[in-house]
Amino acid sequence: MKSSNWWPSFLRRSERAAALLALAVALATAASAETAPWHEISLTIDPRTRALEARDTLSFDSARKATLLLAPQFQIKSLAADGRALEPRAETAAGLMRIELPAARRIDLSWSGTLAALERNVEHVQTLSAGAPASGPEGTFLPAGSGWYPAVEGTLERYRVEIDLPADQRGLAPGRLLEEREAGERYRARFEFSHPSEGITLIAGPYRIEERQVRTAAGSEVRLRTYFHAEIAALASGYLDAITGYLDLYERWIGAYPFSEFSVVSSPTPTGFGMPSLTYLGIEVLRLPFIRATSLGHEILHNWWGNGVYPDFSRGNWAEGLTNFMADYAYRERESAQGGAAVRLAWLRDYAAMPEKDDLPLVGFVSRRHGASQIVGYNKAAMLFFMLREAIGEPAFDEGVRRFWREHRFRVASWDDLRAAFERASDRDLAAFFDQWLDRPGAPELRMEAARAERLGARWRLRVTLAQRAPAYAFSVPLAISTTGGQFARRVEVSRVRESVEIDSDSEPIAVTLDPEHRLFRRLAPAEAPPILREVMLSADAEMLALSPDPGTQQAARSLASKLFERAPREITVALQPRAGVLVVVGLHSDIDAWLSRMGLPPRPAALGAERGSAQVWTQRVGNTRTIALVSARDAQSISALERPLPHYGQQSYLAFDGARNIERGIWPARPPVVNVTALPAR
Ligand SMILES: [Zn+2]
Ligand 1 center to residue 327 CA distance, Å? Predict the structure, then answer.
């Protein structure tokens, strides 16, 4: 995860949302995937008037009853079951028309209506929650689950869709491009998705298409495309190069890319969606150079995890964690071992910053709705895969991944299916491993109670006592032992609340460090993880003190707090020390300095300098339980300027801004637990 910017986290909040919206419509089972109905849709869209005209021929393998779901702004023009015209009768529930049909093999339905206006400046979160099919000359977005076509309730679907647009527009749907042509002032394209899918999404816009045909590592032909707005058309070849690299990486790692196309499509709204065979990203997002290096790979990997194998949402979502581990995390780990360790530490710090009562077992994660669900669903899950690879070894891990893909391609699969694949690949029973990391909430709190060494002839025997909260986790704990002759690493197996382990050494042990590279999922001790801003943002009972008395500053402080916190802080006028919990202090530079001095707290950190930028933000820990965040600004306007950027810097401990632009940031260093070795008298 890249904390140096805020777009990627912005993206992750939203991706796969289309599929999750569809979840309300279709909670599919592996069995129904075999007989998913076929849609044969043709639609005409005029983005200027936002008019949609469409018809669908829906066929089932055998006659069956079905309920169709369609958005209420559409008028049904005709409806027939097995060729017999029906009077459409619909009731509206949960924002969709429900049309109950008699048993039939074939349904014909035509409908029309006006789409919502695509608002270019609409906040992304609103785009998501609205989820309405929308159109305009800048772009058309008809997400699966929005009711733009008559979806069959409770099943996956297959489809062919023909799009008819004005000649200056291009459109697409996930799947294989069967044909496209320009004729008579119109553009037409036909797409087919023959695997059972979670719904149909359709996108259009004033696109310039760049195309490259590649033969992949697995030998298949894939058509790569960019559908870009004119202002970013020059970025196309860089994106096509990057896609080629990711397809190669994941084909070699997992198995053949499952589709015949992959497209990157620009959106006029600040959006990020991943779908089978395409990703839909905001123009401004696509301009950011690091998107190609991180988020694009994450989206491409979702063609295997999420859009190639579907998570069984009723029993948790493994796809984000596995994608996080094999994309974002893997890129950092491939750069350097330190890069991997830094990401793991960031996950553990985020976890330590989360209030314990917000925790949930990983199996309970379905989608990212707030900070806590991301910390568990993305990060704890990725750490599970990291620890699994440590436990069974990389060859068995990779074999498990390939086996899982082979056996569950285009099917719904659960955490149990993943476990089974890794068990067969490693020839080990992994029930206890998955049980403690998946089904159990929380994290082990592990500490070293003592380390003693005694001399045995020419050698030394070190005895380390480790303790953890009950019920104990079973795991292999990495220790680093410093000796008079240098340092060495050792892993020790631990499975009880208190356990002593013996380690032999050639030279005299001096100190022992617990898990120095953060290879275990565990709750960091307060001293081990100095505070980051996330801890403040996730706090359920924070207090806020607005120091400067003028109403403008007070109002700016209140407004910033409403953006920063998931739950509004309680405003106080006097801070009493000491107290546990989170306190945010907002004020002008001189007021903040005076307050720190009056309270006997450390002054403004040297890392931020005296007057760097228009605003500075930093955290302090007082004792083990009190966390203070300070927001120090030149004026009220500089406080307001933080509203947009600041919530995206949760992994940082200190920051400086010039207006809304970040100019300085950093994390107070972590200090892994160390105990000094006591030498016992020689026997
Ligand atoms: Zn994802």
Answer: 9
Confidence of residue 121 (pLDDT cuts 50, 70, 90): low
For residues 485-507, average pLDDT: 96
Phi/psi region, residue 583 (left: phi>0; alpha: psi -120 to 50; beta: rest), is beta
Q: Tell me, rounded to whole angstroms, the distance of Cα 524 from its chain centroid.
A: 22
How many Cβ atoms sit within 10 Å of the Cβ of residue 263? 23
Taking the centre of ligand 1 as the mean of its atom positions, its distance from the CA of residue 496, in whole angstroms, is: 36
CA nearest 322: which of 340, 347, 304?
304
The residues, any chain, with a CB within 8 Å of residue 431's CB and separated by 6 or more, are 419
Using DSSP, state whether 460 is helix, strand or coil.
strand
Question: What is the chain's length?
Answer: 683
Whole-number pLDDT of residue 640:
95
Give the number of other CB atoms < 10 A from CB of residue 598. 8
Task: Say if residues 71 and 50 touch (Cβ distance below 8 Å).
Answer: no
Q: In this structure, what DSSP letter does residue 551 have?
A: H
Q: What is the DSSP letter of 393?
A: -
d(CA 24, CA 154): 9
Amino acid found at 6: W
User: 547, 591 in Cβ contact below 8 A?
Assistant: yes
Q: Looking at the predicted structure, is the pLDDT value of residue 29 above 70?
A: no
Highest mean predicted confidence (pLDDT) among 27-41, 362-376, 600-614, 653-667: 653-667
Residue 576: what pLDDT?
64
Provide mean pLDDT across the span 86-109. Answer: 90
Q: How far does residue 368's CA lie from ligand 1's centre (Å)?
A: 10
Determine the pLDDT at residue 14.
39
53-92: pLDDT as tens digits = 999 999 999 999 999 999 999 999 999 999 999 988 888 8
Mean pLDDT of the chain: 89
**Residue range 588-605: average pLDDT?**
90
What is the whole-number distance in angstroms between the Cα of residue 271 and the centre of ligand 1?
A: 14
Query: Residue 356 — left, alpha, or beta (φ > 0 → left; ψ -120 to 50 → alpha)?
Result: alpha
Both tokens of 552, joined, read 């403008």
What is the distance in A from the centroid of ligand 1 to the CA of 1?
A: 11
Largest CA distance in the chain: 99
Please report the domains of the chain, with CATH numbers, ordered by start residue.
7-50+115-301 (3.30.2010.30), 310-439 (1.10.390.10), 446-525+674-679 (2.60.40), 533-666 (3.30.379)
Q: How far is the CA of 15 from the centre of ligand 1 (A)?
A: 6
Provide the pLDDT for residue 122.
53
Residue 383 CA to residue 378 CA, distance in Å, equals: 9
Ligand 1 center–CA 104 separation, angstroms: 38
CA 578 to ligand 1 centroid distance, Å = 41
Q: CB–CB of 194/156 below 8 Å? A: no
Ligand 1 centre and the CA of 265: distance in Å? Answer: 17
Q: Does 641 score more than 90 pLDDT?
A: yes
Q: Nearest-CA neighbor of 325 among 280, 376, 380, 278? A: 380
For position 280, what pLDDT does the model report? 94
DSSP 8-state symbol, 681: P
Query: Tell me, what's the pLDDT at 578?
Result: 55
User: Residue 675's beta-bridge partner residues?
Assistant: 512
570/562 Cα distance (integer angstroms): 11
Report, in this order, helix, strand and coil percent for the chain, each rounded to 5. Answer: 30, 35, 35
Backbone angles phi, psi at 328, to 5 degrees: -45, -50
Cα–chain center distance at 501: 38
Mean pLDDT of 193-211: 94
- Cβ atoms of residues 21 and 142 within 8 Å: no
